[in-house]
Amino acid sequence: MTKYVAKRIVLALVTIFIVCGITFFAMNAIPGGPFDGEKAVSPEVKAAMEKRFNLDKPLPEQFIIYMKNLLQGDFGVSAKTGRDIGNTIYTSFKTSAKLGGMAVVVAVIIGIILGSVAALTRNRLPDRLIIFFSSLFTSLPSFVLATLLLLVFSVRLKWIPVWSAESHSYILPVISLAAYPMAYVTRLTKTSMLDAMGQDYVRTARAKGVAQFLVLFKHTLRNALIPVVTYVGPMTASILTGSLVVEKIFTIGGLGAKFVDSITNRDYPLIMGVTIFLAVMMVTINLITDIVYKMIDPRIKLD
């Protein structure tokens, strides 16, 4: 286990370095710069600002300087606001983490319950209704669902207030983010449950007279959760890093909104800081997921 974790950490560091390189050189390859859109800025002031952020140096040298500062824990300051990027990421991510965390919990719990019900009522009305709605949510992008929910429940019916600093209503954003992964977890749980229910150990437990409740939740569901756990790790990372458009639609001041604004403003330091943060979070969650496999099923060997 220790050897595997150490190897994964090394691979994670290499992955993050590659992500840094691709992001840095790709965003600098686009014509223009963070100060091109500034009004009433003299060439002298623009040159001073570019020197302040090392934009007057060759790209390879800029990259080396940035990586040296990053290794010291310095993300730099925003080219637009002058605020410390580390603090900006910390304060913004608290909102995104709360929103994403609630979406993950809703998606996993409701998905497992609906998937189990669908497996136990196979080819009957509950199963058909669950599969119909899960197929619908799977094919509906989160930003489309977010727009529809906002239009219907906030604008037309006025049942749920729009998210604001005074009214922190996370209901619609959570539904928008949780709909697709919940539908996927539902279908995955149903398939895994049906497969587990046909195994010899389940038939043996039933033949011994074990209660149906224990057969389903101790033997069947536990083994059926392994594929679900496989998906939950990337799903969590996807929700936390993919809430950009949803946060923008509901005007939630999370990390996603900051990231979109940084791209629009060509704020190079903030783009790099958020990208690195999200990359670290992605590889960390995937590593944790692999370790959880071992906890659920001791037969799994991590090499």
Topology (elements, then pairings):
Blueprint: H1 2-29, H2 43-52, H3 59-71, H4 85-120, H5 125-138, H6 142-156, H7 171-197, H8 200-207, H9 212-241, H10 244-249, H11 255-264, H12 268-296
Helix pairs in contact: 1-12, 4-5, 4-7, 4-9, 5-7, 6-7, 7-9, 8-9, 9-12, 11-12
Report on the architecture of this protein.
Helices cover 75% and strands 0% of the residues. The protein has 303 residues and is mainly α. The protein is flat.
Seen as an oligomer or otherwise, the chain set is: single chain
- What is the approximate shape? flat
Rg of Cα set: 24 Å
How large a portion of the residues is in β-strands, by DSSP E? under 5%
Distance between the termini: 7 Å
Helix content: over 70%
Number of helices: 12
Unreliably modeled segments: none
Mean pLDDT value: 80
What attributes characterize this protein structure?
303 residues, mainly alpha, 12 helices, 75% helix, 0% strand, flat
Quick rundown:
The protein is mainly α. The chain has helices spanning 2-29, 43-52, 59-71, 85-120, 125-138, 142-156, 171-197, 200-207, 212-241, 244-249, 255-264, 268-296.
